[in-house]
Amino acid sequence: MRIERRFTKAGQSPYAEIEFRKATSEIKNPDGSIVFRLENIDVPAQFSQVAADILAQKYFRKAGVPAKLKKVEENDVPSFLWRSIPDDAAMKDLPKDRQSGSETDARQVFDRLAGTWTYWGWKGGYFSSEEDASAFCDELAYMLATQRVAPNSPQWFNTGMHWAYGIDGPGQGHYYVDPFTGKLTKSKSAYEHPQPHACFIQSVEDDLVNEGGIMDLWVREARLFKYGSGTGSNFSMLRAEGEKLSGGGRSSGLMSFLKIGDRAAGAIKSGGTTRRAAKMVVVDIDHPDIEDYINWKVKEEQKVAALVTGSKIVARHLKAIMKATLNCEGDNDDCFDPAKNPALKREIRAAKKDQVPENYVQRVIQFARQGYKDLEFKTYDTDWDSEAYLTVSGQNSNNSVSIKDDFLRAVENDGDWNLTARKDGKVIKTLKARDLWESISYAAWASADPGLHFNTTMNDWHTSPAAGPIRASNPCSEYMFLDDTACNLASLNLMTFKDAATKRINIADYEHAVRLWTVVLEVSVMMAQFPSRRIAELSYEYRTLGLGYANIGGLLMSSGIPYDSDEARAIAGSLTAIMTGIAYATSAEMASELGTFPMFEPNRENMLRVIRNHRRAAYGEASGYEGLSVNPVALIHSDNPDKDLVAHAKAAWDKALQLGERHGYRNAQATVIAPTGTIGLVMDCDTTGIEPDFALVKFKKLAGGGYFKIINRAVPEALRTLGYSESQIAEIEAYAVGHGNLNQAPAINPSTLKAKGFTAEKVDAVNAALKSAFDIKFVFNQWTLGADFLKGTLKVSDEQMADMSFNLLDHLGFSKKDIEAANIHVCGAMTLEGAPFLKNEHLAVFDCANPCGKIGKRYLSVESHIRMMAAAQPFISGAISKTINMPNEATVEDCKNAYMLSWKLGLKANALYRDGSKLSQPLNASLIEDDSDEDALEEFLQAPAAAQAVTITEKIVERVIEKVVRTQEKLPGRRKGYTQKAKIGGHTIFLRTGEYDDGRLGEIFLDMNKEGSALRAFINNFAISVSLGLQYGVPLEEYVDAFTFTKFEPAGIVTGNDAIKNATSILDYVFRELAISYLGRHDLAHVDTSDFSNTALGRGVSEGKADVVSKGLTRGYKPTLVPTSGERPAAEVKGSATAAPARAASVSTVTAFAGNTVRKLEPTSAVSTSEVVAFKRDYEERAKELAEEIAEEVAEETGLFTDKAASDAATAKTDAKKLESERRARSIMQGYTGNMCTECQNFTMVRNGTCEKCDTCGATSGCS
């Protein structure tokens, strides 16, 4: 093939005209802890801080890159493409730690990708000459560096390690078909043949344990999840519940196996190396278990609601019953007798009314009679990563129902529908098609699943039906092909092809990029290795590709064209038609030189039929399509403002058909439209895939940390295109983003504040903080103004300052309208609705997927999403990954209509997302800030029942906990502790602990051997901050939860520690060690040392004797015994409720804590063991003796847990929850979904195709 140069010059570096800059990449958790840091990296100057972070954190190779390289000569390869290996001779004088390291320059990454593709392309005979190969390599490097195109993440991770650096390792069980011999080969090397594919479809047979069967699928899925890829499978071959087995038994059914697979996927995800929901489950509409499958997630969501609400109701009643027995003065056991204690009787009746189990009520009374003073009953919340969601099934996959047209026609005609047995095809059940359709629509409305696969349409456009039908897709639904195949993706950033001078798409550049990247993806199939034998064979035989684009939303907005308009759909259709037409033409061009894909001949007529149908749609024909059940939405030429796009779209398909008829095609599929999550961030795309924008005001990341507000960069460009002056644009921007200070603000400004007692200095402090704020109430607080000023001048009480919901502006006498007006002036409206100068007819240009800001009302209609997909679908080989956003008030009927319209417009798949359809997803539309506000309450009462249910779930039971103002608890002058030396990834670290007299942890010291002063000092100071926290009562368990599993270098193998053998970072190791030693958290150990202390130290006189504690209240958790009566220990516990051995004074004077708190507070060598203990019958005879022994031991010790310590722990936990809720609310106001990222814990997740992505670290819940 001949390769034209359009961006580079021969004999000149591809980067010659690209400016590069030095950058530091740092990603922090919300608490300020550093997840990742890399200094002095080189990136193109146009890369934003987020793009630089993604490149450095995710795509730079972090270890094993040799400091010196040498070329390996190959006679049949040009010298500029020779691969490199470490130059050991040149490195022998370098210190060991400097012989290899991390990639530090973006050019290293671009060169290894472009070089590897060109190397394999040369070996495969794809280039006519060395000049063509050189041009190919340079053009690709240039396009990567200028953010024009990006391949899917596995390419960045894996491609070029062997070619560029000589990095290698043993095979990982992968296979490839040798491109030169056609022979299936098992990989001996981990990197020589890279694994560049993101999307997989795998088959599953109705077989339990053999290869290709059910249990084998979980292993195959695990291999993909481990490396961050996604997979989908159609499970319709599995027998339904009750169908006969060959051995005479009955099948346990489809759902039982889906639940196993869901648990398996969740377990692998929780290891921290993979992402949520990178799995698609598909079931055909005629499967006998289809009704259970459709309602699966609906029922699981109901279970979560029941767990959350029920646990809080039970906890409230049990505490009230315990309190009724304590706040009572009576003789003997009168306080515990409902007949004699009216308060107890009242509480028991109330508990029964709420259906609290009677035996729980009885247990609490029994506990109180035994001397227990309090209990902690485990409650749950609706956080998507909480125990409530982890308890239920179905949370680790996207679910779809595969529907054929005969079902949809039965729905239209109100016909019957048969569910058939898997083995003999007998009808098992007949029901009304409309009833099943209603179930699907209700389930999608209630839980956002299942999506639909329109199977007839998928197979009408199938290029290779000779091998069987398309049955499934990848998790995001854009790749649809045969089972056991794979697809590697790349996406073009459309904004980079818009000519700055003409404001139009540079079509020649666009077509050039499509041609080259089709070759890149084809070469990637040739060089790749695959996770299974069958996938390797079929990928070789069909060679499917996934070229797509991103940023159409940004392109349309910047051009002043509304997303929901005929012009927008015509432009999207034309660009898609050009892309796929040129891709197929390029495929035919490669086929002329290298031959067609091996299975082309059996599928020749079908493939050409599909190409002719694509061409008819490009020509705008309304009829004449071959073999289609539903005609596509053809291109409407007259709607396109750029007639050149139409001409090129027609020409591209003319060429694709003409060359294909002559030479055939090299690839069975060429294009998809993927969600472009992480790669969208690395290209600085405003919008992903075919999605519209989600917000008009963005939060741009600063190099030194933190964010500042900017208008979406498409907005000013759009306003210029629409004819607004620069001064008008500045005013409109200021309205959206805010002025960042109070100087000219209405109602709340320097003069009104000074009248309330503010000094000029305090006004300046407020103004300084307002620059990056998005709501003024978050600035008027004690941290900005100082506690003394609030208490002294503004007369704020300690109680008000401690109350998280306290609003200082309310306290100062400003009305809600005053605050709102000032807020819009200072922090911006976050929308353009109501902006000065903006004409009403232009508002549609700025419509987003959701209403923008607090006052925004406009958003894109459901139909606009579907019609945009329909405009692009006729020109895509695969399908489109896109979420169809629906407002909370959408009805089940709206869901039905959306699905029906999608089918009639020729879509292949569809996924709906109604705002608030998941309990874990806070509502964008209804955030009730103040229950006492009558307007808000009135609006709430008028909201649909579903909206009320979601909003109120968390508020059903509210625990009011008195705020404790903590003081520092000093450690004794001479203190105990231990020193632990270990090595992490070759770096020596010393951990030293300091303990209170009663064995609680009070301080830690960390030191590192032979480290640079910066890291050593940072680690040392970090230890001081943790120590201060412990002394002010922060529970150690909170630190453990926050810092275990954090990832940064140094990391790796741990030596010198009995329990921990691997750590993802220094902090992960330190807090695992502390959790094991002080909390008994052996679940965090790699070697269970829970019985080490017993064998080494024994339990003295208590050895072998039963524990004096009933485990009955909450099975599986043991209550911790707490002294409550008699004299309090001299050093009253104020700090962490975590520690070493706890022992009770006697049975009659203890408080019991059960549930999660106790599990976390479990001491290292506690008297009681972790298992539930069955009491022996001789307990009564030994109880007195044992109590005396324990009392003697306690006399020598300080009391470990007190009521106050427990209260402190509970308060800390409640505060953390409140802070999380506040951060979630804040994120929704910023335009995010309100979910927390599992990798960096920031609340910066946005909808992305059918998945979500994090705008901070780039993590996605999908596979691309």
Structural topology:
Blueprint: E1 20-28, E2 34-44, H1 49-59, E3 65-66, E4 69-71, E5 84-86, H2 88-91, E6 100-101, H3 106-123, H4 130-145, E7 149-151, H5 153-158, H6 161-165, E8 175-177, E9 184-186, E10 199-201, H7 214-226, E11 230-234, H8 254-273, E12 279-284, H9 290-294, H10 296-326, H11 342-353, H12 358-369, H13 387-391, E13 398-403, H14 405-412, E14 416-420, E15 427-432, H15 433-447, E16 451-454, H16 455-460, E17 472-473, E18 480-481, E19 485-493, H17 507-527, H18 533-542, E20 545-550, H19 552-558, H20 566-594, H21 600-618, H22 643-663, H23 677-682, E21 697-701, E22 707-711, H24 714-721, H25 726-737, H26 750-755, H27 760-770, H28 782-785, H29 787-792, H30 798-802, H31 808-811, H32 816-827, H33 862-872, E23 883-886, H34 892-904, E24 909-914, H35 934-942, H36 945-953, E25 979-984, E26 987-995, E27 1001-1008, H37 1013-1031, H38 1036-1043, E28 1052-1055, E29 1062-1063, H39 1066-1079, H40 1092-1097, E30 1120-1123, E31 1150-1153, H41 1156-1161, H42 1179-1195, H43 1203-1229, E32 1245-1248, E33 1251-1254
Parallel strand pairs: 10-11, 11-12, 12-13, 13-16, 19-20, 23-24
Antiparallel strand pairs: 1-2, 3-6, 4-5, 7-19, 8-9, 10-19, 14-15, 16-24, 17-18, 21-22, 25-26, 25-28, 26-27, 28-29, 30-31, 32-33
